Amino acid sequence: MEYFFGFAGIPRELREKVEARNSEFAKGAGFCIDKMPSYVPYGPQGIDFFMSAFQKKIDSGGNVAETAFAIIYLVRDLGSSNAFANAFFPHTMMVPVEWQWDGTRLDSIGKAVNELTEKLKQATAIAREALSVLRDEVCSRAQSTPILLPVQNFNSRTFVPALQTLHLELATGILPSNAVFEHRKRMLDAHPMQRIEGKRRDCFVDDRQVEFHPPGNDRHGFSRSGGSHNLACLLSGRRRLGAPYDQLFHYDCTKGTRNLKGQFLGCHSPAQAYEGNPHLNIAPNDHVRA
Description:
- The structure is a single chain.
- This protein is α/β, with parallel strands linked by helices.
- The chain has 7 helices and 13 strands.
- It has helices spanning 12-19, 44-59, 78-86, 109-140, 159-171, 176-190, 231-236, and strands at 2-8, 30-33, 67-74, 93-97, 204-205, 211-213, 239-240, 243-244, 251-254, 261-264, 272-275, 280-282, 288-289.
- A 5-stranded antiparallel sheet has the order 5-6-9-12-13, with no helix packed on it. A 4-stranded parallel sheet has the order 2-1-3-4, sandwiched between helices.
- Helix 1 (12-19) links the parallel strand 1 and strand 2 (30-33).
- Helix 1 (12-19) crosses helix 4 and helix 5 packs antiparallel against helix 6 (176-190).
- It is elongated, with a radius of gyration of 20 Å.
C-alpha cells in the first residue's frame, strides 16, 4: 500500500523550511501542503485545495487504487477545525496536531521548524499504522466488518457515531488493532450479523429491518468517475477512513421475501423511491442501483 499525505495549517513563515524536510515526515509518500494564510480559521478554500490535490493524484494514474489518503492538520479554532475534518468524513483519515507558535520572534524559527517537523513525523506514523490495520480490515474482512456499511442508508443510531469514534481513536494514537476490535464489538452488539433463511451468508440488519448482504465474490460496485458523480462520491467509493478497499464491493439489500421498496439516499442526491428486483445494490459510498 502507498500513501498520499496532505498537511494543513502550517504557518506561512515556516512552510518552505518544513517542506524542505519532508523526508523526515513523508518519506516514500506523495504529499502536498496547503498555502492558506497563517492563523486564520479553516474554510472552504482549504477543503477545495485538498480535494483538488486528491483529484490530481487520482488523475495521475499509477497505483492509485492501492493508495491510502490522510490529512495531517494543525488544530486552529475548534469550530473550523472540526468542520474541516468533517468535510472529509468518511473517505479520508484526518489526524489532528496540537501545536501553537505565535510567530513574533524570528530568531525562534529554527526551533519552531524542529518542533513542528517532529510533530508531523509523529502524526504521519500514527496515520501509517492506522491505515495499515484498516486496509487489512476492509479488504481481508470485507464480508464481515461493519466499517464498510453505507453511512447514509444503513439506518442506525449506533453506526455513524461508532465510526466517528473509531476515526477519532485511530487519529489520536490508540492502538489500531484495539480500536478496530472495539468498534466491531460496539457495532455487533447493536447490529449482530444474522443468517436469513434462504441466504448463503450472514448479513447486517438496520433499524428499518433492511438486510445488507455482503456480495461474496459477485462484486460489481460502481465507483466510477464522470457523469453526475463528484469527487467525494469517488473517494468514498474507494476508501473508508483513508484506507483503500475493493471498489467493486457493495451490498445486496433486501427485506423479507418481496421486492425491496423504500426511500434511499444517493451518494450525492436526496432521498428518492427505489424498488429492487428483488434487491437493491447499495455501495459503501451510498450509491444505489436497482
